[in-house]
Amino acid sequence: MAATSLMTTVLLLCCVAVYGQKPCCSPDKWTAHLLQKTGAYDTDTGASKRDVSSRINYDYTLKKMSMFTETRNTTYNTSTFLQTIIDYNKGMEWRISGTDCTRHVTTEKMLPPCFLEGAEFFGYHKMAEMPVEVWFRDDGKGHSSRFTMARDPCVLVTETTRSIMPGYGSYELSFGIYENVTTGYVDPGVFSIPSICPRSGPVIKKYPKQTPMWPWYVPSTYFSPDP
User: Which domains can be identified in the chain, with CATH numbers?
Assistant: First the structure.
């Protein structure tokens, strides 16, 4: 009887620990190299696969982000380079591709360090002997993601994302792994707007050329498949 009561107590404590778990908050400043394998389907262009390499710079104290992204379309054997700088204080985003630079209106607030707040906890496991937590989040706007997070420091390790573009008959499935993560300092120079970029004039607002919920995640509709 005593053994049964003890086991029941242990089980209850375990359930409270799991179901009461809250995600940690990432540092205010961090950088990372994100490697993604992405599959996309579009009703107009069909299916395609991409390898995406992104260098991410995140500074919540300045309310700025920048990404240097190389996307290799392995289906059509084409490559695209894109630099993105987002200033959330001004609600503006600049996209630089070669000698072209365009201004865009941001449509989302900058994701705060506690960006997984409200996510569902899926438990623990180990990756290469490193303990990680597994979280799931659905934003109700066509994006659902499964994350693995380290706790000390609190940083992303992997991310699997499904994105559906409403009204466009297209979707993407992506798996990404975060490498060379650093925290505590971001070089302010990575947020400098190149001289070729417009400071005034036309601003692109039409969907889908607006800032996605996850700015470092590059939807397939940003690039021409060039069949």
Answer: 23-217 (2.50.20.30)
